[in-house]
Amino acid sequence: MAKVLFINPGPSGHLNPAVAVSKTLVERGEDVVFYANAHYKEKLSGTGVELRIIPSEPIVEAFTTYGMNHLFNVINGLLKTTDIILPQILEDVQHEHYDYLIHDSMFGCGHLVSQKLNIPTISTVTSFNQTTQMFDDFTKNLATTLTQDEVDNANAAFDELKQHVEYTYNVDVPSRFEVMNNPGDLNLSYVMEKFQIDYASFDSERNYFAGPSVIQPQPSGFMDEIDRSRPIIYISLGTIFNQNIAFFNKCFKALKDLNVTVVVSIGNENRLEDFEDIPDNFIIKAYVPQTELLQYTSLFLTHAGMNSTNESMMMGVPMLAFPQSADQPVVAQQIEDLNLGQQLNAETMTPEILKQTVLDMLGNLEYYQHNIDQIRDTETNQRPGYELAVDRILAFRDQNCK
Question: What is the pTM of this model?
Fold first, then answer.
């Protein structure tokens, strides 16, 4: 048995794949200390990990300091969270021994923690993996889309943050790539090989594509109230972008006259009185057991978060993507390029365009499902992604932890 330090503050799209992995690690004998946001205490209960809480509000406040309007500001926000996360973890573990570290590739200052602890490190990747060259090409292109003032301000903020973090914690922040991607000795991706952009560019010794880490859904009673006699359409913008009232109202107008059952997840912040008239064929819920519902879903209207995209492909459900931010435009483009679905702009589409697109997709479900099957069929092992991930983690442990 080895002792594992696992850092993953969330959000849910980053945390969800780690739940099954951490549970399986414990079942196979590992002693896991897991740092997470208090919101995910219930998700991690029953996994057998020792849960330690990282405060979410200060992290969110730091992360959003520079705004979310472009990636350079997002990266600056990530670097600013160092002052919240790193001191707590270093103080907590100063008298503890760990054999290896697992951290989320985007959240949790993994690259910095690994420098301080000097132990073998695994970075878990919930979106597309990136080589340094891929990242550099993307950021160079991004810079051409911004004003010179935006670039200068972002660069100045990054340089100031980099100097502060390096001086305060005696660590190295080589570039934006390390802040955004937190590469480890092993980079473990929850993306299917054939869905990964430019898969052949990745060194198989340091990069492993386990595929979706999702526990098989169990019946909860949710489907008992859903009319399954007609096609089911599921609509969700995830947990961060679901306050787009105008988008949901367009969906009401577009789909109200179709012979379908529409299930909509609106989150805990929205109220029913915030919406226009809700049609009779719509079921509105604050929370939806997504993987359970997707087993019965014909078409998924999604924000194209990687977690939702993985789950949809696992269940063979075509997607109509409405990317909102972060990596979602890239994921949505891959969905379209591989003919797993289509994408629309949530802001500019009309109810009429949405209605016609949905009708066209419902009439061609077998085409999209066949293409999804082609992606899934590239997985040579039919075991779940979290089991494959743990196999690789333990092999890494045996090779690197003496």
Answer: 0.86
